[in-house]
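Example record for the data management plan.
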Amino acid sequence: MPLPARTGPVLALVGATLFWAGNYVLGAVAVREMSPVSLTALRWALAAVPLVVIAQVVERPDWRAVLRTWPRQVVLALLGMVGYALFVYTALQHTSSVNASLVNALNPALIALLGAAVARRAPSRRAVAGMLVGLLGVVVVLTGGRLGALTSLELNVGDLLMVGAIVVWSVYTVGGRGLAGVPPIASTAVQAVIAAVVMAPFAATGHVHWPAGRDATVALVVIAVLPSVGSYLLWNLALRRVPPAEAGSYLNLITVFTVLISAATGYALGAAQVVGGVLVLGGVLLVRERPAGGRAPRPGAAAASDPAGRVAGHAGETLRDVRPAGDVPGVPADGRRGD
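Corresponding structural encoding:
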């Protein structure tokens, strides 16, 4: 019996989020031996060429037209591929991959509110309530359930760095709305090349080192192949058959997969992480408003972000259904993904 027509796109979305979750787990392994600068530089140096090749094969873009958008591409690369990655990998030196993914889960709500601010429209009461519930969840994770830590400033620096990461990713996601019409994989490839070039001076001055240990080497290569290349390809292929807003709902699986992978490898979840995670995901569901009549938007009708963090959709549309990534990652509003 043939598989249902939607099975392929659904499996692609699940695979993309699974790979992005791996960025958190493997990133924590890599930074035991590598600096965040080395990991960021080598990740995009290894991923840039495959992304360019895949963009050419899948999209056959007009590269001249893509390169004419270089000023915005540079800004997005600095934010989403360099800045976000440095924040995340530095955070993973001080906190667990589970905590990092839980804080990152607040990103969709923050993007929705930031998008509303940019569009100069007041967010709904439901969206504000969702943001507050999600923020409470992040506070629970940050303090380990000891809210008194807020007054004594006994907070984990890694968790605070993840807050910085989601702010950077939110700006990156909303800023990507100006790239309507640019093929998403091609745009991701250009940004990866820019990120590799930006990080090249660090390599030239001896600040980038290939890991000596086997575990870190394997983690680096897998991060360069699966979260950096595989996830983007699967995500964009799925968007050809699945509405962006619907696809965005799968981004919550990043946190779920990160927790499951960590638990399977011996990580013991604390009560504060469970409670905080439920609150964060609940807040995301509240922020996610539905169109009038309760029907899901048709393909291409609304923006939705991927985990790496870029938004899928079209410039000029509302961010009502925007949800991030992670590496995530999200992707700019034209459908690309970049964590």
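Summary line stored alongside the record: The radius of gyration is 19 Å.
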